[in-house]
Amino acid sequence: METIIKTYNRALLCDFEYFEPVNISEAVSLLQKYGDDAKLIAGGTDLLVDIKEEKIKPKVLVSIMKIPDLKCIVEDGTELRIGAATTLAEIEESRVIRENYGLICEAAKELGTVQVRNMATIGGNICNAVPSADLPPALVALDAQLKIVGANGERILPLEEFFVGVRKTKLKNELLKEIVVGRPPERSGTAFIKLARTSEDLAIVNAAVRVTLNKDGICEEARVVVGGGIGPTLLRSREAEKMLEGRKLDGEVIGKAAEICGQGFQCRSKSIRASPEYKIEVGKVLVKRALLKALERVGG
Length: 300
Description:
The protein has about 300 residues and is an alpha+beta fold. Helices cover about 30% and strands about 30% of the residues.
């Protein structure tokens, strides 16, 4: 049974009930019971800041850190499953992820400090749905899918379709169970690049790419994904991908693809980190650099 603690924390300026369910079914039942009054908490690196700054005042907190099914890294040779409560430090230290899904490791290392990565979870980085998040672009570039659990059972949703706006997702009193990523095809190169004011800050712009070449060096498949406030959600540029696919990649082709990608940016007019004009220009540069790095890694 779930544990309930009635508490008042003066530091957080919030009166709430706190539950610690021990399995997914209990957690989903609590979400169904309390609806919008409830917030899930894992590492709390974003949620506790929002509470402290009084951006939100939840009446119920549901901790998922005692649910063993949400903490896993499992690979069967064809796909990888990462539990939603897995920390970024655990991802960063995972040999199987580092060797076979290096793009995920590369993005995880760019997020915050060591202390933050020891607390923050992959599920939290996704479900918080801020445009500056580092893991979602990398995961979308690898065609990641989400396993989501609710009162009606389990459903699968491509991560690319999960976000509907700033801090808005398609979750409906549901729980993200795990992230599923297929192993990249042979002769694939990936890269993640982030620009921020400091190494610990949120991204001004970030870019994740994947290119897959055939034996003749022709690009068979490409993924170009950009985040960091270039729009209300991350952007997967299918137009840029079409520019790359079916061609032998070089600096000229990659430069054109980066320009095409930049045409899809929808930067907000106001930002504390950079102007829209700066984001557009630097975003194109990051996409070009990431594609060149991915091409180099695959031996192109």
